[in-house]
Specification:
heterodimer; A: seven-stranded mixed β-sheet; six-stranded mixed β-sheet; 19% strand; B: mainly alpha; 16 helices; globular
């Protein structure tokens, strides 16, 4: 390292503690006095006993007196960090606004910043510990639901691998030393106006942070604030600049759309608004009784995604060809201002009819359609999509443009490139990196880590000590979003003031505190900073009330960004945003996608997300090179073959996985794996696709070569067989079929009549819990799986055990294919416990560990189970999970904090399964009983039901004819899985319906 | 009471004798008791015994690791939650049935040729049940709570769930073990007395003496013995049918396609006797050779046992064919697929092996030349043991690996610990068996004596 090491004053707490422990009486006091004279003691006092510290002064006698009085407290404190008393008021949001029940879990509104865009949530807090994240029903991005990454965010808070202390070159330092160092380094910077000062952050939508940066950049005018997100929105920003002159934010109101065309956009499962889109989309597909209106979805994509699975019509195309497709659509629609010359490839090709049908459908639904371009597509595709939407008159109706969410948007790659070039030129003397992991995920052609070593002072702030912090001198642990105050905007601009639920577990600091150190008021707390900012936005006597309500509700009222009535400008250069590249004939295409759950690598150490099966492929714990079956055949590849991906002179080894429906001659790799400093969970998992990614083609490129190595690499999917084998598992049909014969689903799933048995059957009076799952709605996002895992303390078992089919998820989402392997129809089926009235599992348990309750629940008694596993064998749905080993982490203290205290943590040798969230049922029943009323419909939401963005899962009392679940079960589409076995399951399914375009169907 | 003793006049009928001519009471007693009372332990006993000890050590290691880590060290998974352990359990229990059949049923049917094989066959049963009984204990997720499967008065106020076949198993196997042990022990008493009287070793005398329970060979003792023997035989006889029927209920009561079949009870019982006799032959043939017992365990015995194997083999073959037929005839897609999967799925080689080992190869037993050739008999018996193991494996693992929902389909593979535990129980079995050979008369001395012409009760002796 180039900076000489200076002895910053600090307290070696461990040795002091040891000394004090060893001393008694007079010795003890002498030690204390010695201690009192060391530097850093004053700062310790201020931190531990802020009120008393005021009495500390320089008078020796006074100090001795102080020590006498404080001695015991200091000893009791153990001179170690103990929890500080909160000095800030946080506003609990209670589920039932009419009543506040002490001693029960409280819910607090905050937001989960998914790549800085807020997903409003309510976090359940047990005794001051956040244990579960639920959606915020009042937040537009959530409406009560969440996605998988949001659900798993609570585990990161308790990650034992999180960085816990501030370090300088690996040694622990207090915050004051850092401030001293920073101030020292800033001295020369002030003289030059900050010419050598650079900040690098990830994306941000925080108004407070932007304001702080504004202030800092005013203080250091020559300093620069760079932004970099490896999976950011640079394509949409670039296109928006071209289309509208400014990098506007675009979002879609899909509840108003009758026809949707997705150009490589997995809008149902990825992106900051995916929960809302899934809700709106499925709301328009709900077929109930005589209401048979359905929207229609066309998807064109290179990788098989859940959005493609829900499509009524899907076309697999290479990523590079989608621009031509979009051009063809634009030409067909007659969109102005874009170059549609590329369309000739498509209109002359085999897809001409498809395109013509789509064009006609779109034209028939002007103003009620939406063309959504994929974030990972090229800016040209975005431009074409804007043009098409504009031509169809969708702007302002289904397509809304607003001011950018980031108050100061930049192009990610240009920003980072500029920084890299500045570093290379030696212009950067002080680099502050907040969040992000550029050493790991910067494009390879930037050579970021080499160039970064030229910077004299490198400061890193992040949740983890990762690849980037290894190359920085200072590492500051960042406070998790659940530990600190901040704010963020949602996809539509709605602001949430984020409140913490727990004091920082470790010595975490907020980015606001860090920036304050660069500003004029260095000692402000995040609470003060955020509140002060909003006070400036809302001056007036009613600010306190306004503040309390905003924090309580989780949204700042009327803060959604207004729709900008922009018009699409004719593209000035006349061609697409990127220079037109002719698609080369040879070489495979490589497509870079952020992983659906690990994202860009930030969640690599989150066990829940690593073990969550990816949608469709159900792969866990690894990324793979996805190819289509036909391409695999051509190249002579089998699943799990380890191959070398040779791209632009760089090589990476990856296992191959065939994905039905994948575009031919295209290979998809997911980013976020192959990390070396993620933590005990994420290290060494998968291969690093960033090693191939260059800044000129960050989304896809051609010229990939695959070289076989001859060895195999085991991959761990949770589902091997995806065909229904002629069994009526997912009953599906077309909407026309339903209109003609609404009972078609019941014909395929025949249940034996109840009179067939001589047993009288149990009469369920009172509550009869049941569940109905709408297969038309399920989008396969797997949020329900993580929600269940969080709620029920389900352990993570690791890749070896998943390879042995021992994953412990209580609810799983099966995917089934129907039709040709090149482009099959895909169906999702969430499978929780069926809670059969005639349960085969109950019959065979030798010790009565599984019984049936009088309300219809199949109860599992963990402490009676001896583990013969006969019940698991006899369950035809295979919903039972067995603890083959002691999977639950008995030891790590921080992980114990996350556990839901209402649910037992199971030990080894015990069977477990979905319980219909019996703890929630009982909580609601107790409340209802105390109030002398029956449980209301909707009062109990199982974890899966609450999390589902599409509202596909509905739980309730079947005996109540007015309940949602009873009405769903009365639908003609309702059927039981494996009905002929006479298990009489309480979990039933609604058949999956599609709305195909007769033009395409019949061609 | 005179009994028909056709078999002790063999020469007349041209059949192989049940006992070689030239024996007297004394020679029979000497021959059998010398094996036990000799001071010199033969090498051909020591080497197999030490091998068995080594395998027993493997067992102890495998079981210790299992208890420490958990049942996950085996290859079981979702959906195949029973693998080698239950296969082994059914295999061992099945093997045990031959001993009881020989001891009890053949006794009641007056088949006196069973007299020279019933002792070690019953011992085989006991040790097979002991080996089998390991598995229901070991395969539990929480084996220290195994006693919850027994209905004992407890403070929890909970009883086992009696509709579960595993609870029936508990009763069946424990009854079987108890009755077999009693029957075997009661049958040992006169021989223990013989050993007590013959041995010169003080400790042996004391031990045998205690175990012989004061047997003096008085007429009243014999009368009580005969009554007890008949009663126990009567108790044990239905067990031959019922125990394996109950074990087959473990499968038939379940709804898994490939398990849920009414043919299993007779099919399993026949299969049990099939494999049991195979094991008796596998034990008898080397023992005959090693200890020179060819005059007590004659070709007639081997021939008879081979015929029983052949007969039960035909029942088993019929069951296989019928199972396949019913799978198709049922028109139930899951049943049809279960059969189709056995024939063409990933485990088809185990199914082909099974058909060959149990159905095809043992048809050689139709030939008398084969039945009377000890080498062929030994090979066929081993083959049947393997085949019967494969049968249980196919039933359990193949059916479970692909049942109703294809999303749950998965393949099962054993781990080294599955194999070690199985091999370990083989070690346990032979360890006990060789101890038995060394310390107790492996052939029933007094019962063989009744086979001699001198033992014939002639007319004129007063009742």
């Amino acid at each position: 390292m180039t900076t000489p090491r200076k002895p910053y004053p600090y307290l070696d707490l461990a040795s002091i503690r040891a000394r004090l422990d060893a001393s008694r009486g007079r010795e003890y006091w002498r030690s204390l006095e010695e201690l009192a004279n060391t530097e850093g003691f004053e700062e310790l006092l201020e931190r531990e006993f802020p009120r008393q510290a005021a009495e500390w002064n320089d008078d020796a006698a006074g100090r001795r007196q102080f020590l006498k009085v404080m001695g015991a407290s200091l000893a009791l404190a153990g001179l170690s960090a103990c929890t500080r008393q909160p000095t800030e008021t946080i506003m609990p949001y209670v589920r039932q606004p009419e009543e506040v029940i002490p001693g029960r879990p409280l819910f607090f509104a905050t937001a989960v910043p998914n790549m800085a865009v807020a997903m409003g949530v309510l976090v359940e807090s047990h005794l001051g510990r956040p244990t579960k994240i639920e959606g915020n029903p009042e937040h537009p991005a959530s409406l009560g639901a969440t996605d998988a990454m949001t659900q798993a965010a609570v585990l990161d808070l308790y990650d034992p691998d999180r960085s816990q202390t501030l370090t300088y070159l690996g040694d622990i330092r207090p915050w004051s030393s850092f401030l001293g160092a920073a101030r020292e380094a800033l001295g020369p910077q002030s003289a030059t106006g900050g010419a050598g000062l650079r900040f690098l952050t990830g994306a941000t939508t925080s108004p407070t942070l932007a304001d702080q940066f504004h202030a800092v950049l005013q203080k250091f005018p020559k300093a620069k604030w760079h932004r970099y997100e490896p999976a950011g929105r640079h394509a949409s920003r670039t296109a928006a600049r071209q289309a509208f002159g400014e990098p506007l934010n675009t979002y879609y109101q899909l509840d108003k759309a009758d026809v949707i065309l997705s150009l490589d956009a997995d809008f149902l499962c990825t992106g900051p608004a995916n929960v809302r889109y899934a809700r709106d989309f499925t709301a328009r597909r709900r077929v109930r009784g005589q209401q048979t209106g359905m929207n229609r979805l066309y998807v064109v994509e290179s990788t098989a995604t859940p959005t493609g699975a829900k499509a009524d019509h899907r076309l697999p195309l290479r990523a590079v060809d989608i621009e031509a497709f979009a051009a063809a659509i634009a030409a067909g629609i007659g969109a102005h201002g874009v170059d549609t010359s590329a369309s000739s490839q498509m209109t002359a090709g085999p897809h001409a009819k498809w395109i013509a049908a789509v064009v006609r459908d779109l034209q028939q639904h002007r103003g009620a359609s939406a063309v959504i371009p994929g974030e990972q597509q090229s800016p040209a595709v975005h431009l074409l999509a804007h043009a098409i939407n504009d031509a169809l008159g969708n702007t302002g109706k289904t397509v809304i443009h607003t001011d950018p969410l980031d108050p100061n948007p930049v192009d990610d790659f240009n920003s980072l490139r500029e920084l890299a070039e500045d570093m290379e030129a030696g212009k950067v003397e002080m680099l502050v990196i907040v969040g992000g992991n550029p050493v790991y995920n910067a494009p390879v052609d930037f050579a970021f880590s080499q160039r970064m070593s030229k910077v004299k002072l490198r400061i890193h702030m992040g949740l983890y000590a990762d690849e980037t912090s290894e190359l920085c001198q200072w590492h500051i642990p960042e406070a998790h979003f659940l530990e600190t105050w901040s704010d963020a905007r949602a996809y539509d601009g709605t602001v949430t003031i984020m409140q913490p639920l727990i004091m920082p577990l470790y010595f975490g600091r907020s980015v606001h505190e860090l920036l304050a150190a660069f500003g004029d008021q260095p000692n402000q707390t995040p609470y003060e900073i955020v509140k002060a900012y909003w006070n400036r936005q809302h001056p007036g006597a009613d600010f306190e009330d306004w503040w309390r309500k905003a924090v309580h509700d989780g949204i700042v009222p009327n803060s959604a960004l207004a729709a900008r009535p922009v018009t699409f400008k004719a593209a000035s250069t006349g061609t697409s945003a990127a220079p037109a590249k002719p698609a080369p004939a040879q070489g495979l295409e490589i497509v870079f996608r952020p992983d659906p759950f690990i994202f860009d690598g930030r969640f690599a150490n989150n066990g829940w997300l690593q073990e969550l099966p990816r949608p469709l492929t159900t792969l866990t714990w690894d990324n793979a090179a996805f190819v289509s079956p036909r391409t695999a055949e051509r190249l002579g590849l089998q699943n799990e073959d380890l191959v070398e991906l040779n791209y632009r002179g760089r090589k990476v080894k990856a296992p191959v996985w065939m994905v039905p429906g994948h575009a031919d001659e295209s290979v998809t790799v997911h980013l976020g794996y192959g990390r070396t400093s993620a933590g005990r969970v994420g290290n060494g998992v998968g291969f690093n696709a960033y090693a191939l990614r260059t800044s000129d083609a960050p989304s896809f490129g051609s010229g990939l070569e695959i070289v076989k190595t001859g060895s195999k690499y085991p991959l761990a999917p949770t589902q091997f067989a995806h065909m229904m084998e002629g069994r009526a598992i997912v009953i599906s049909g077309e909407i026309d079929e339903y209109r003609k014969n609404p009972g078609f689903a019941k014909e395929k799933a025949e249940e034996p009549p109840k009179e067939l048995t001589i047993y009288p059957g149990f009469k369920y009076e009172g509550y009869a819990w049941g569940m109905a799952i709408d297969q038309t709605a399920c989008v396969g996002c797997n949020a329900c799986m993580v929600a269940c895992q969080a709620e029920n303390n389900i352990p993570v078992v690791g890749k070896e055990q998943v390879l042995m089919r021992r994953a412990m998820h209580w609810i799983r989402v099966d995917s089934y294919y129907k039709g040709p392997v090149d482009n099959p129809e895909t169906y999702f089926q969430p499978v929780p416990c069926m809670h059969c009235e005639n349960a085969p599992c109950e019959l065979v348990c030798p010790v009565q560990a599984t019984n049936h309750s009088a309300e219809g629940l199949n109860d599992m008694v963990y402490n009676r189970c001896v583990g013969t596993r006969y019940c698991g064998n006899n369950c035809p749905y295979k919903v039972r999970r067995f603890n083959f080993f002691l999977y639950s982490d008995w030891n790590t203290p921080s992980l114990k904090l996350q556990r839901n205290p209402d649910v037992s943590v199971r030990s080894r040798g015990v069977m477990e399964k979905c319980t219909y969230c019996v703890q929630r049922i009982n909580e609601a029943k107790i409340d209802a009983e105390k109030e002398g009323r029956p449980v209301r419909d909707g009062e109990i939401a199982t974890a899966c039901e609450a999390a589902c963005p599409a509202q596909a899962i509905v739980f309730g009392n079947v005996n109540d004819p007015a309940s949602r679940v009873a009405k769903l079960k009365a639908e003609q589409l309702n059927y039981s899985l494996l009905a002929e076995l006479n298990t009489r399951p309480r979990t039933t399914y609604l058949a999956a319906l599609r709305n195909p375009n007769p033009e395409i169907e019949n061609s | 009471m005179s009994e028909e003793r056709r078999d002790i006049l063999p020469v007349e009928r041209g059949r192989v004798p049940v006992i070689a001519p030239g024996h007297t009471f004394a020679t029979v007693t000497d021959k059998i008791s010398t094996i036990v009372l000799t001071r010199k332990t033969p090498l051909f006993w020591l080497i197999p015994f030490l091998t068995a000890c080594a395998l027993l050590m493997v067992f102890l290691v495998a079981v210790s690791y299992l208890f420490v880590k958990g049942v996950g060290i085996w290859g079981i998974r979702v959906p195949v939650m029973w693998g080698w352990a239950i296969t082994n359990f059914v295999w061992w229990i099945g093997i045990g049935h031959a001993g009881t059949l020989i001891s009890a049923i053949l006794l009641l049917l007056h088949q006196s040729w069973r007299n020279s094989i019933n002792r070690f066959a019953e011992a085989m049963t006991l040790f097979a049940v002991a080996s089998a009984g390991m598995f229901p204990l070991l395969h539990l997720g929480r084996p220290w709570l195994f006693y919850w499967l027994f209905p004992y008065p407890n403070t929890m106020g909970v009883q086992p769930q009696f509709r579960s076949p595993l609870v029936w198993d508990v009763f069946a196997v424990s009854t079987y073990g108890t009755v077999s042990l009693l029957f075997w022990f009661v049958g040992l008493i006169p021989d223990l007395a013989t050993l007590r009287d013959r041995t010169r070793n003080r400790w042996a005398k004391a031990t045998y003496g205690i175990l012989a329970m004061g047997w003096r060979g008085a007429a009243s003792h014999w009368q009580k013995y005969e009554t007890a023997s008949l009663l126990l035989a009567g108790l044990a006889t239905p067990l031959v049918i019922s125990v394996h029927t109950v074990v087959s209920f473990d499968f038939t009561v379940a709804i898994v396609p490939g398990w849920h079949s009414t043919i299993f009870p007779p099919y399993f019982v026949a299969g049990a006797i099939y494999s049991g006799f195979a094991m008796v032959l596998v034990l008898a043939i080397p023992l005959r050779a090693m200890y020179g017992l060819g005059d007590l365990i004659t070709m007639r015995h081997l021939d008879n046992m081979a015929k029983v194997m052949l007969a039960t083999g035909q029942i088993v073959a019929y069951s296989y064919l019928f199972e396949a037929f019913i799978g198709w005839y049922s028109a139930n897609q899951y049943e049809m697929y279960a059969i189709w999967n056995r024939l063409t799925g990933p485990y088809r080689w185990t199914y082909y092996g099974l058909i060959f080992c149990n159905l095809v190869f043992p048809q050689l037993l139709w030939l008398k030349k084969i039945r009377t050739n000890v080498v062929w008999l030994f090979v066929i018996a081993l083959d049947i043991l393997v085949g019967m193991w494969l049968e249980r494996y196919v039933i359990i693992v193949v059916s479970l690996s692909r049942d109703f929902l294809p999303s749950s389909w998965a393949l099962y593979w054993p781990t080294i610990w599955d194999v070690a535990t199985y091999v370990g129980t083989i070690g346990l079995f032979f360890f006990l068996f060789f101890l038995f050979i060394r310390s107790l008369p492996m052939i029933s001395i007094f019962e063989v004596r009744t086979l001699l012409p001198q033992a014939e009760v002639t007319e004129g002796v007063e009742k």
